[in-house]
Specification:
seven-stranded parallel beta sheet; 21 helices; 40% helix
């Protein structure tokens, strides 16, 4: 049985700046000098640069050297480019004599190798350089600011960044490579402060950082590459953030030959009130498509036929008398019997937000020994009105709010949620013991005292009615199949987010202008697992052809 630590070990770590500093310090304590790591970083960055521009001989390359380790990396790259016949020009943020440590060593080596060094202020007056006969750059390497930068840019740094962007914009064939992170971008939030270098590619050293993989950072990061600089395994301590990509699916077990329907769990969907039955159907369909052995739907009697939607595989439990349109205030015997047989619940899709639904939800959550539940949609809004019920949630339960529902739970508005999604996730995790999925482009998954999983996917095909219901059904099926595992709710949530995103991405290839349906999204879920070998690959590293 896989532990949470083993699950995290299959994913790429996303160290925060302070965690990266700890890695560096521990590597130095082991005897791996900063100068050696800097040399390795220079070679890794050069290798990425050569993917895009294989022939650098004779080309003008402008490199920006800041005062930190990124600046030393830039000096090292300048020397390596000179060895290949390029014409590097190194702009330094500080006078050369002010450089210290490993950066000073690599600056000295670059100068000894004939690299021309110019003060950074001359970059902002690049017109004078060009007028004086200096050739325009074909390549720009950004080593001005590293992942330790936070806050607001100083005026001189902002002017240099704006000049880099202007040079790249004026010369379509000018390629910009950022070392570790585009200068001006916050490594945690992925937001510019207030501007950042617009790189065509970024090579992140040792590991990607949380802000780099968020979809909002893409305009500055470009194609993201991760470079191995030889950081020893003993110093790569577990970190607080992991990249939630296709590697998460490699832990899904293959069906055993002797399996039977009860081997794969029984999902009970509680939702789909009259007029909202499509949501209940989508959750049921997704649970079946994700591999649940049995799926039942419980709802007011008048809604059941529409929830089934012609799928005889969906079993039903009628609540209330014949023709009932409201949820009962108490848990009836027939439902109690089905709850005893279920291994996971999906609660809320199309439930409605009336007083009847609120009373039913309260009765359900207060049941002793109920199955773990994925709580979604209307049930989340109802929970925001009865915060006392949050104490009834256990560690295997899962909350799946979109920004509006998250705002309701936290007593704020969607704008504040989107302004700082990591903080919103932390606030949601503090409300209960349940795992939380904060949906949206770059979905975040977390739980109190557990790692945060960051999905790098932004899938326009998922922006449609019913998409969230499909995710709820998908997670509930995974939860039903993993009951009894360590951190079952958190792992089911994380795996379901990946499966849902990759199904949406596959649909997007067939519907490039959107137009796909939630039912088609549910149908696509099992096909993602059929291409498991393909989806296990990292999602960020890709080559963009460049006319160098």
């Amino acid at each position: 049985m896989e532990t949470l630590a083993e699950f995290c070990a299959r994913l790429s770590p996303l160290p925060l700046p302070e965690e990266m500093r700890q890695w560096d310090a521990e590597a130095a304590a082991l005897g791996l000098s900063p100068a050696m790591l800097m040399e390795n970083a220079g070679h890794v960055a050069l290798d990425v640069l050569l993917r895009y521009c294989p022939d650098v001989a004779g080309k003008a390359v402008w490199l920006i050297m800041g005062s930190g380790n990124n600046g030393g990396d830039a000096a090292c790259i300048a020397r390596l480019l000179a060895d290949r016949g390029a014409r590097p020009l190194l702009f330094t943020a500080r006078p050369p004599e002010a450089a210290a440590g490993a950066s000073a060593l690599h600056l000295s080596l670059a100068r000894a190798n004939g690299v021309r060094v110019i003060p950074l202020p001359e970059l902002t007056a690049a017109g004078g350089l060009l007028a004086g006969g200096c050739p325009p750059p074909r390549l720009i390497v950004d080593g001005l600011l590293g992942t330790g930068f936070s806050g607001t840019l100083r005026p001189d740094a902002q002017a240099a960044i704006e000049q880099v962007n202007a040079l790249s914009g004026r010369t379509p064939s000018c390629f910009v490579l950022a070392v570790d992170i585009p200068s001006g971008l916050d490594a945690t939030s992925g937001k510019p402060s207030p501007v950042a270098v617009r790189a065509h590619a970024t090579v992140s050293l040792a590991a990607a950082k949380p802000g780099l993989v968020l979809p909002d950072a893409a305009p500055w990061v470009g194609a993201l590459h991760v470079g191995d600089i030889g950081m020893p395994a003993p110093v790569r301590a577990p970190v607080r953030h992991c990249l939630l990509d296709g590697r998460a699916l490699s832990g899904l077990p293959a069906p055993a030959p002797e399996s039977h329907k009860n081997s794969f769990g029984h999902v009970l969907v509680l939702g789909g009130a009259p007029g909202l039955s499509g949501a209940g159907h989508m959750a049921c369909a997704a649970a079946l498509r994700t591999g649940a052995g049995l799926v039942s739907a419980a709802a007011p009697q008048s809604a059941l036929a529409a929830i089934q939607g012609g799928w005889p595989e969906i079993m039903t439990v009628a609540l209330g008398p014949r023709g009932a349109v409201e949820w009962p205030a108490a848990i009836e015997d027939a439902l109690l019997e089905r709850l005893r047989r279920a291994t996971a619940l999906a609660v809320g899709p199309g439930m409605g937000r009336g007083e009847d639904a609120a009373a039913f939800l309260a009765a359900l959550l207060q049941l002793p020994e109920r199955p773990p539940a994925v709580i979604d949609a209307d049930a989340l809004v109802l929970l925001s009105r009865r915060s006392d019920l949050l104490a009834k949630l256990g560690p295997d339960d899962v909350l799946t709010p979109h920004p509006g529902e998250a705002a309701a739970l936290l007593g704020t508005d969607g704008r504040h949620i989107q302004a700082d999604r990591p903080a919103a996730l932390a606030g949601l995790c503090a409300l209960s013991r349940a795992a939380v999925v904060l949906k949206g482009a770059g979905t975040l998954v977390g739980q109190a005292s557990a790692p945060v999983f960051i999905s790098p996917y932004a899938v326009p095909a998922l922006a449609m009615g019913g998409s969230g219901d499909v995710l709820a059904g998908c997670i509930s099926a995974l939860l039903a199949q993993s009951r009894g595992h360590e951190a079952a709710g958190l792992r089911a949530a994380a795996t379901g987010v990946v499966l849902h995103a990759l199904a949406g991405r596959s649909l997007g290839r067939g519907f490039p202008r959107r137009g796909c349906l939630a039912s088609e999204l549910a149908d696509a879920l099992p096909h993602v697992c059929a291409t498991l070998g393909e989806t296990r690959q990292g999602v960020w590293e890709r080559r963009v052809p460049w006319p160098c």
